[in-house]
Amino acid sequence: MHQDKAVLAEPTMLLVHSPLLTAATWDALRPHLEAAGWRVAVPDLRPLVDAPSFHAAVCAAAAASVTPGAPTVVVGHSRAGAYLPGIADAVGGDRLDVVFLDARLPHPGTSWVGSLPPERVAWLREMAVSGRLPTWDTWFPANSLDELLPDPGQRQVLHGLPELPWQVVSEVLPAPGGAWNSARHVYLQLSAAYQSTAEQAKERGYRVRRMDADHLAMVTQPATVTDLLLSALRK
């Protein structure tokens, strides 16, 4: 008697980095998850930023990283949060968890810049050069990221950051479908800056967990973030 492949397939933890960062965001966290028995998939979004639709390209890359029908946990950090509904629908399956890790909440029907206050949009427009935003590490006062990542080795995650085309931040995201609606939604707050977002997630019915850390805690405190993530996923 043959068992269904989806039953035999390893549960997958699909880690989606912010479009402003790189897949190296997950390098410190990955071995902790693998030690806990997870198959870990980490698609690199950087080659996709010039696709006609970044959203569609991200969803396709995510779906290609998992086994159809296998239990899957989709984890998105920061600005990846907006893409999680589409990714959930692309991955599909009836055993699906979606985790927002210090992430923005979805804004279907509008764009990244459309979800921002006008003054923030004007600030981004002023920064853009030849239709592209400068790399994320230049958005802050000097030395502020050194404080966030005090270990020089940790600052390796800031190498190779993309310059996002304006079309990425102005792309209107579609409404999600069935898989997103039936998935379990979890919000993990890492930093004080995302407190109000976590509160909004709670109001939407998400399971919310918090730790007093920083926005890149998966880099600076990967063992603690692993514990938070796995505990939040327990039934």
Topology:
Blueprint (H helix, E strand, L loop, with lengths): L4 H4 L3 E5 L13 H6 L3 E3 L12 H11 L7 E6 L6 H8 L4 E6 L16 H10 L16 H5 L17 H5 L7 H5 L1 E6 L5 H9 L3 E4 L6 H4 L1 H12 L2
Parallel strand pairs: 1-2, 1-3, 3-4, 4-5, 5-6
Helix pairs in contact: 3-4
What share of residues is helical?
25-40%
Structural class: alpha/beta
Total DSSP helices:
11
Strand order within the widest sheet?
2-1-3-4-5-6
Mean pLDDT: 94
**Overall radius of gyration:** 17 Å
Distance between the termini: 30 Å
β-strand amount: 5-15%
- As residue ranges, the low-confidence spans are 1-7
What is the count of β-strands?
Answer: 6
Shape: globular
Note down, in words, how this protein is organized.
- Helix 3 (54-64) crosses helix 4.
- 34% of the residues lie in helices and 13% in strands.
- The chain has a six-stranded parallel β-sheet with strand order 2-1-3-4-5-6, with helices on both faces.
- It contains eleven helices and six strands.
- The chain has helices spanning 5-8, 30-35, 54-64, 84-91, 118-127, 144-148, 166-170, 178-182, 195-203, 217-220, 222-233, and strands at residues 12-16, 39-41, 72-77, 96-101, 184-189, 207-210.
Briefly characterize the structure.
This protein is an alpha/beta fold. Helix content is 34%, strand content 13%. Strands 2-1-3-4-5-6 form a 6-stranded parallel beta sheet, with helices on both faces.
